[in-house]
Amino acid sequence: MRRALAALSLLLIAPSACRPSAPADPAVAEFADAYPTEVVARGGERRYELVAAPTTLPMLDGRALAVWAYNGQVPGPILHATVGERLHVRFTNRLPQDTTVHWHGVRVPHAMDGVPGVTQPPVEPGESFDYAFVPKDAGTFWFHPHIRSAEQVERGLFGVLIVHEAEPPPFSRDVVWVLDDWRLGRDGAIDPNFVTRHDLAHDGRWGSVVTVNGRVNETLAVRPGERIRLRLVNTANGRVFRPDFSGLDARVIAVDGMTTARPVEPRGFELAPGNRLDLDVTIPVEAGGRQFRIVDDFIAGRPNSLAWIRVAGDAVETPRFASPARAHVPAWKDVPPEPTLAFELQAERGGPFGIAWTLNGEAPTDHAHHPGRRLPLGRFARLRFVNASFRLHPMHTHGMFFKVLARNGAPVDEPWWRDTVLVHAKEIIDVGLVPLDPGRWMMHCHVLEHAEAGMMTTLDVAS
Ligand code: C2O
Ligand code: CU
Predict the structure, then answer these.
(1) Domain spanning 341-462: which superfamily?
(2) 89 C-alpha vs ligand 1 centroid, how far in Å?
(3) Is domain 2-25+36-164 in CATH 3.40.50.720, yes or no?
(4) pTM for this prediction
(5) Which pLDDT does position 8 carry in this prediction?
(6) Judging by beta carbons within 10 Å of its beta carbon (0-12, 13-18, 19+), is residue 246 exposed, middle or buried?
């Protein structure tokens, strides 16, 4: 009896003492087991200055391109922090427009989420804003504006935030590949027509020049035997990439920043706008002098060359360690089959752009006063995305991770968390989540043109 009581009280307090509702729900208890609900503050602080401004950079194939850049770089600087350490970013806007910085995938306090009118006022030209938070999860994240994103991200405003584990696995090197594409006008400059009817009638703005780290045919020089942590981030407005790593010894070890339950074969993984993928890549010792081309084959018959891995020099000893893995990701097989909230994804004529993208028939522009959808704090919820359209919609939630539970009614057990899931034409996807942070969190399509034209709502998490 004493034992049973002890076990019960453990169950009740395990998710964290400050969690308001105890997880009576077995799904919640299962979740609390798997998810890093609390962070141990380590002390220490990383300070960064971040300035957004127009500039001209050698880009793509080496041409001078007029861009908008963070700290004069495209992609922006890679910011580093260790999980539990405080990150302080003093941001200054030197753009001709209002902007904000959103920390995609990072579970930040609501006031730091960078959503104009919902979590903060816009940062006006010449103004500054201090973003400060303690990252709760180690992993690959990114940051970008949340105002006129279809224009600002396309012009070059995006950067990567790496939150390191307290004890990072001893890879030979840690490499970031930012995947993007660019639509240029006849003059070779970024085409300044944003959120066009064409973009809206399709999967957003797809460019004609595909880059990795802002360059066409990015090359990574490695030595035989090296073991690389390769962090892929899709910052494109609309393009989906399906990178092919066949020929290399590569395993997925994290999706959307969160470590997978086990290493996963990368074949066929669709990297939609917003998604990240961490790979554990070992370069064979006998690969000296070889080069591997990484190709995107999302569109059958129209592959894009992404990057090269060139192997040269003396072989190094391959670091031996088990790939990072999360102890357990719940399969959530016994959760209620009916959705807590369902969203129909559809388009209609009208709105400021001529075509509006809707969630349940709504395409709101003012999220501060939008009724939103309520989600109970600390309780299991199932969200259903019903794509009634023929276009792609990578659906993204701020402030929470979710698990895909079903595709077109068939159960799915992806052994990882996500913050963005691609919903294909006419597809129905169910996801499960347990919101842990109170606040009004955006949920939107990460095709930035679709979001701009209304495909955005809020999930209001409260007890
Ligand atoms: Cu990267 Cu609101 O999103
Ligand atoms: Cu969309």
Answers:
(1) Cupredoxins -  blue copper proteins (2.60.40.420)
(2) 18
(3) no
(4) 0.93
(5) 34
(6) exposed
